[in-house]
Amino acid sequence: GSVSGAYAWEALPTKAPEPADNPTTAEKVALGQMLYHDPRLSSTGTVSCASCHNTMLGGEDNRPNSMGVNAQTGGRSAPTVWNAAFNKVQFWDGRAASLEEQAAGPVANPIEMGMKDWDAVVARLKAIEGYHEAFTKVFGENSISQENVTKAIAAYERTLITPNSPYDKYVNGDKSALTEQQVRGMNKMAELGCTACHSGPAFNGAGTYQKFPVNSNGYFEAQYKFKRDKGRAEVTNNPEDEHMWKVPTLRNIALTAPYFHNGSVSTLEKAVKVMGKLQLDKDLPDEDIEDIVAFLNGLTGQFPKQSMPILPSTPGRLAK
Amino acid sequence: GSVSGAYAWEALPTKAPEPADNPTTAEKVALGQMLYHDPRLSSTGTVSCASCHNTMLGGEDNRPNSMGVNAQTGGRSAPTVWNAAFNKVQFWDGRAASLEEQAAGPVANPIEMGMKDWDAVVARLKAIEGYHEAFTKVFGENSISQENVTKAIAAYERTLITPNSPYDKYVNGDKSALTEQQVRGMNKMAELGCTACHSGPAFNGAGTYQKFPVNSNGYFEAQYKFKRDKGRAEVTNNPEDEHMWKVPTLRNIALTAPYFHNGSVSTLEKAVKVMGKLQLDKDLPDEDIEDIVAFLNGLTGQFPKQSMPILPSTPGRLAK
Ligand code: HEC
Ligand code: HEC
Ligand code: HEC
Ligand code: HEC
Ligand SMILES: [Ca+2]
Ligand SMILES: [Ca+2]
Ligand SMILES: [Ca+2]
Ligand SMILES: [Mg+2]
User: Which domains does chain A possess?
Assistant: First the structure.
C-alpha cells in the first residue's frame, strides 16, 4: 500500500529535546531512574512513580484511575510516561509546563504519594547515605533538593522513548513494515481528520489544546461521563477552557487501555468510535474502525532495554 | 583480627539447591522474573511479588507489616526474598515446604494479591498473548497453569543470591575484608551462642525451628507484643509449637529493618539487644551490641545486576 494525500507523516526522533538548564547526562539519568522507582518517595513506602507509570509495561497502570497511597483513587487515568518527553505540556489539562514541573506534583499529592511536603521528601532522601553519593556525583555536594530530584527524574523520563515502531520503519522507507490494512488505516486517519488534532511525530498535536467532546451526545455521555471533568477550566477557571484537553499521544496506544482522561472506555475499537462521533461527528463504519485500530497497533515502538536500578538501602536506624 | 573458637564459619554458596522436578534454566528464570514483577497477578493490578519483596532494595518493604491490595495489612512482616532459596522451609512459621509451594500462596490471599483463585490468575495470564509464547518456550504448548507459574517464580527466586559479602571474603581468606571490630563481633556471635541457632552459611539454622521468646520478659513484651502471634502453632494447632519460629537468615540484615515476625523493632541495635535478653537471658553490654551490629553489617552481599523485564502487554480489549 502507499500513502495518499498531503499529510506529512513523521518518524519519532530518537532523542527528546532537553531544557538548557537540565542537560541529560548518563549519571543524572541513572539517579533519575533510581528516584523514579523508589517507593520511599511515598508516605507508606509502597508507591513509586513506576506504580502508576509502569516502565515494564506501557508506561501506565492499565486502570481507569490510578491507585495511590492507602488505595486512594482520583478521577483521572494515568497517561503513559513513554514519550511524555515529546509533550509540550504535561497532564491531561496541560497544567505543568515541563517534566521537571510535573515531577514536583505527585510526591506531595495526598492521594498519590502522600508525603507531607517536599521538606519531608528531602529529609528522607538525606537519611539515605547512598543518595548523598549519587547526588554529589551529579549535582555537587549537599545537593539533595526538590529542584535536583525533579531534574534527575525528568532527565530519566527523557530517555523513555520508543522509536522504530512499524509506523516509523514505514515512514523511514521500509514499505513492508505496515500491512495493507494498516496503510489503509493510516490514510483514513489523515482523510477523516484525526491528524488535524493528533499531529506530529508523537501524534500529540504539538502541545495544542482541543475541546473534547466537540459534539454533544447523550448516549455516549450517559455511558462514559466525559463532561464531569471540566478539563483545563479546572485549573484556569476560565469558561473558555471548559472541556479543553491537551491532545494525548497515540504512541503505544494499543498498550494503554483503558482510554480517555477518566479511563472510561475499555477498548481501542470503542475509543476510535468515540473519537469519530464526538470529535468528527461521524458514525465510522466498522471497517474504518478496524483499519484505524490496525494502524494504531503499528504505533507500538521498541522499548529500550533497561537495567534494574539497585536502590541505596534504608539505614536500619531510620526505617519505621 | 582472627577468629577464635571451634565454630565452622561458612561462605554463601553461589548456587542454590534446586529440586529435581524444577531445574533452573535461563528461560525459566526470565519467565519467573516477569511473573514476579507483574502486578496483573493481583486483583487491583497494583501489587506484584516485588511490591512486598522489592528486588531493587533489600528484598522486602522495610515496613512493619506489608501492604497488599486495597491497602490491607496483615500481622506479619515480609521476610527478604534474597537468599530465601537457602531456607529449608518458607514463611516465619515454615508452613511452606518449598519456594514452589510458597509462591502459590500470595496471589489468592485476600489481603495480599487478592485474586479470586488460581483459575482467575491462569485465565488472566492466558489472555496475555506474550505469556503464551514465554510459557511455550519453557514448558511446552498450552502450559499456563498454577504449577508452572509457581515453578518459574521459584526458579527465578533461586537466582536471588547475594554472595561476596565482606564476611564471605573474610571466610574465603581475605583477612582485610572485615574490620577489627567486625571480627570481634563475629567471635562474640559464636561465643554468646547466636550461632547455635543462626548457623550455616545463611545464618538461618538450616531449617530448624526455635522458640521465640525463649525467656519471658514483661518489659519487652509490653513494647513489642511478640507473644500475640503463636507462630508455628497457628498452623499446626499443636501446643508444643506455640511461639516456635523458623530461624530467619541474617544475610543482608542491615537492609531489612524493621525486625522480627511482626516488624516491631526498628533498629538492628535493638534487635540484637532483644535476642541477647530473650534468647540467651543476657543483658548484652553496649560494646557487645555495637561489635555484633558491625559484624552483621558485614553480611551485606553483592546484589546481582538484573535487567528490567519487559512484560507482555495487556491487550486493549481485556483491560478493565
Ligand atoms: C497514584 C498514581 C500516580 C503516581 C504515584 C504518579 N503519577 Fe504521574 N500521573 C498520574 C495521573 C492520574 C496523571 C494524570 C493527572 C492529570 O492529568 O490530572 C499523571 C500524569 C503524569 C504525567 C503527564 C503525562 C502526560 O502525558 O500528560 C507525567 C509525565 C507523570 N505523571 C510522571 C510521574 C512521575 C515522574 C511520578 C513520580 C514522581 C508520578 N507520575 C507519580 C498518576 C500517578
Ligand atoms: C478535535 C480534536 C480531535 C480529533 C479530530 C480527534 N481527536 Fe482523538 N483525542 C483528542 C483529545 C483532546 C483527546 C483526549 C480526550 C480526553 O481523554 O479527555 C483524544 C483522545 C484520543 C484517544 C484516547 C487516548 C488515550 O490515551 O486515552 C484516541 C485513541 C484517539 N483520540 C484517537 C483518535 C482518532 C482515531 C481520531 C479520528 C477518528 C481522533 N482521535 C480524532 C482530540 C481529537
Ligand atoms: C502484600 C504483601 C506480599 C506480597 C504481595 C507477597 N508477599 Fe511474600 N511474604 C509476605 C509476608 C508478610 C510474608 C511472611 C508471611 C508469614 O510468614 O506468615 C511473606 C513470605 C514470603 C516468603 C518466605 C520467605 C522466608 O524467609 O520465609 C517468600 C519466599 C515470599 N514471600 C515470596 C513471595 C512471592 C514469590 C510473591 C508473589 C507470588 C509474594 N511473596 C507476594 C508479604 C507479601
Ligand atoms: C534460641 C535460638 C536463637 C538464638 C540463641 C538467637 N536467635 Fe536470633 N532469632 C531466632 C528466631 C527464632 C528469630 C525469629 C523470631 C521472630 O521474629 O519471631 C530470630 C531473629 C533474629 C533477628 C531478626 C531477624 C529479622 O529478619 O527480623 C536478628 C537480627 C537476630 N535474630 C540476631 C541474633 C543475635 C545477634 C543473636 C545472639 C545475640 C541471636 N539472634 C540469638 C533464634 C535465635
Ligand atoms: Ca490509558
Ligand atoms: Ca519488613
Ligand atoms: Ca524485616
Ligand atoms: Mg490508565
Answer: 26-157 (1.10.760.10), 166-297 (1.10.760.10)
